[in-house]
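Sample pair:
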Amino acid sequence: MLLSLLKHSFLRQKKAMAMMVVSVSMGTAIAASLIALSMDIKGKVSKELRSFGANITVTPKIEGIAGIAGQRRYLREEDIIRIKTIFWRHNIVGIAPALEENAELSYGDKRRKITAVGTWFKKELPLPGETAKFEAGVTTVSPWWAIEGSPPEAGGVVLGSSLSRELGVREGDEVLLDERPFKVTGIVETGGIEDGRAFLDLWDMQQLKGLPGKVSTISVSALTTPMDEFAYKDPSLMSRKEYEKWYCTGYVTSIAKQIEEVVAGGRAKPVWHIAETEGIVLGRMSMLIYLLSAASLLASALGVSTTMVAGLLRRLDEIGLMKAIGADGIQIIVIFLSEALIIGTAGGIAGYVVSIGVAKVVGLKVFGVALSERALLLPVSVAMALLIAAIGSLLPIRRALKIKPAVILKGAR
């Protein structure tokens, strides 16, 4: 009997039913696409935010008398690649060492006391136990550096833009650094303190200062999980279970802790303004996604409700007759919910299919790469569609339950 009533209802209201399926599918498609975005957004946005610079800095650990006396300490160059052996090694996307020392730069009769920096601009490092190589250097942690010319090779130097203007030095000129000749291979402009410095290849700097195998800092760019309340908790006060959870979550603090464990004599510190900015941006984007998802579901439910109410007005005689011959409220509810079930299932499947294309377009337009396809979204889409259809049927059900058979069958409206 129920199947016969449903078949009759759908055949009589083909356009209305089609409109409701379309409404449900569109609302579901938008919500499912936003959910797909929210699943990938942390990694994608975190990767985009790496263009802000390194979010972890490793410096020598100086404590006690050494710190009071102002002694210089250095990190070992050989420990750099060990950063790619930690638990979160796949989240490490950039590493750049630096050896900073005071030096005298001469050009003609002009002399300046400057800070000279030895670093890698671009260098491939062999990964322990793997055939693949890891690209490290300034380009991986500070991609915004604008170099006019080429990075320094052996015997070359790159000058900051303000320093080159002050001395009148151009690309191709020769300068003296601590009385040793270097050819200017390029000019770098960053808008920061780097514009007043000179940059050499790390090996050249180590030889110039007699510090073979030494570096003063290591900048690390890592994809991280946004900081929450738990992430700020002091690890020394955590229980063993809490510590394991913290250590195995990609917080910037837990990744810094693991880096300290592999870099001898090093202290890894998060660059807090970058880490906090990332958390704020991701938090606000997530909130926006939730609000847009809720709005799309609500709009779709209103569309279903409006169409169902319009259909109900055409079915007043039918509902009145059913009540007159003994149908109770539960049976009326079952009919409407059964229609909602069919509409929701069809709309959910259609919405999932549409969401796959929408997610790809959004991913390509925003991040330059398609979002991941997730089979989990199919049951989620159907569940959301059923929720939309169920909410949309509430008002029609209430109005149907208030119908009085005697009034309807007499012809009064």
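Residues 54-270 form one domain.
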